[in-house]
Amino acid sequence: xxxxxxxxxxxxxxxxxxxxxxxxxxxxxxxxxxxxxxxxxxxxxxxxxxxxxxxxxxxxxxxxxxxxxxxxxxxxxxxxxxxxxxxxxxxxxxxxxxxxxxxxxxxxxxxxxxxxxxxxxxxxxxxxxxxxxxxxxxxxxxxxxxxxxxxxxxxxxxxxxxxxxxxxxxxxxxxxxxxxxxxxxxxxxxxxxxxxxxxxxxxxxxxxxxxxxxxxxxxxxxxxxxxxxxxxxxxxxxxxxxxxxxxxxxxxxxxxxxxxxxxxxxxxxxxxxxxxxxxxxxxxxxxxxxxxxxxxxxxxxxxxxxxxxxxxxxxxxxxxxxxxxxxxxxxxxxxxxxxxxxxxxxxxxxxxxxxxxxxxxxxxxxxxxxxxxxxxxxxxxxxxxxxxxxxxxxxxxxxxxxxxxxxxxxxxxxxxxxxxxxxxxxxxxxxxxxxxxxxxxxxxxxxxxxxxxxxxxxxxxxxxxxxxxxxxxxxxxxxxxxxxx
Length: 485
Description:
Distance between the termini: 28 Å
Oligomer: single chain
Strand order of the largest sheet: 7-6-8-9-3-10-16-15-11-12
Helix content: 25-40%
Number of helices: 17
Mean pLDDT: 89
């Protein structure tokens, strides 16, 4: 740009300051306009016009976004913890995703034989051994159990076990693990007790184990973490909202480390019945493993799932000081609202596209740098195409982008979905392999982006985004990349 300005200035000096030019031209609105018969003046004036045109064009080109350089504000991922239909180990979880074998099956936690939907991404054989003592484990709602195990496993993965934490300033470590629905089993059982047996039979744990903030609170109580601590509840966008909020705490200097994610345990009679009433769920009871089929023309709704996904987000300065293993970098995020409808997305995708754009601005990333999208992709008729249209509005050239749907394999974890999918996104970055979107038999014609259909693909992720959207029109997008010192 300096060269352009310099060239323009020197040419202007010739135009305005040269007696020769003035003598060979005429004044026109304060400028020198050359006689076309005077070739020298014409050429010089033409040179000025070209210079101005170049400057005008340059001013229309947006400046390249600037990524954060301050190690106090750069945010890295130093730990991950998961509770999923594929178990409680991050590597095993992602390896099963890469295999593309569905984790959806018939419900056996309760008798669903009379329900029009009889399957889910249900967790079986869950063990909290070593993370929750037996007495509390028997009392706790599954949502809290999943939250505690995933949170503590993430801390372990970040080398922030009990002994290490005791030597640290724990007022600088916070927790934000959200949930869309909270302790549903506790609430359902409490209501049943009230109706059948009276108020005296309602457990004293009814309120503490139902409210959405208790997961974050219990992690802090067990570990002594005294930094910012609360939950966010924005339906299926919850976990990404938590990541965004936690990042802002670190950037503002409120904390050095945050334990962040989402948890949900809705596979109970009232949870499934509620979504049946919304007409949101697939009813493919004969083929449950083929029920979640994002972007496929034969999709008929989402599959309810559960679990927890938690990240350790940390300032680069803090991670470097304690010699932490840096897994990936969080570059930025954004949250917006459709302001449109309780359950339906905007057809024009404006809320989603603006959220993606804002997330890239926050991350200091240009659209051309993004080459992987972990899509929200729930397998609903309207939602899948609304998201694709929004993506196309932001990314004009999608030829280098690959996009997959984790929910096709494990179902929709609601408030936990963003946490589970953030882990899938980060594992895609670190392994160079993308898990498939399964059940891709008849792709919608509008979907012109590579959805990694049915078989995993090798792909070097430069910048990846993870989308999560929730009932109420809540939109959230987070941006991850390989860590480069």
